Amino acid sequence: MCHENYFNVAYQNDNLHGAMGAYMREEGYERPIIMAPNYPAGTDALAGFKHLYEGEVVGELYTQMGQTDYAAEIAQIRDSNADSLFFFLPGGMGISFMKQWESSGVDMPIFGAAFSFDEILIKAVGSAAIGARNTSLWAYDLENEANERFVEGFREAYDRTPTLYAAQGYDTANLILSALETAHPDDKDAFREALRAADFDSVRGEFRFGPNHHPIQDIYVREVVEGDDGEPTNRLIGIAVEDIQDIYFEQCQM
User: Which pTM value belongs to this model?
Assistant: First the structure.
């Protein structure tokens, strides 16, 4: 379903999960158990993880959308002989799970994607989030001029640290503005080429479009730590995968 006028400034749905699979493999985790809700984004998440982990997982758990009680899943994880847990539970599901996980006493490294560990969610999770590692296309402490300007301006305007959603929205606006400086939207061919060039300073660092107009970009790893104010916050610890590209681009013949 690719189209010449379609541009994605965020990510293909597997990317952050696949990057964490690659990171955990490189870190030496040999027996992960993986968990996500049973809906398309959840199945995408686990498929993406397995694609770049390139090893066997000890189990896959599919939860219900909107689930609030994870006692059964935590019991399965406890009995799984896994050496690590990767999960995708966005929003309130992740908050509920992490609070129950902390009280369960299970001692196992936690990994996920930024969708369960953005700056708003980890404040709600509290101390249970400390030590978890997550992948993101962006981090607020990335050292580049565009990002420093963005984070400072966002904090001044909204009195909080931005999330990856704000970062990709900001990049989208700047992409469109960069194209408008080059071509008028009435000239569709010229405007499309101006968008494809992606001639703007991204807050995430290097950014370019692949042949299907999905990003080719680095995916970063962050760890949740206790901030100077005593609240959980993400700290950049490295790059999971450089220049990641979705696995479907060859199916797009533009």
Answer: 0.94
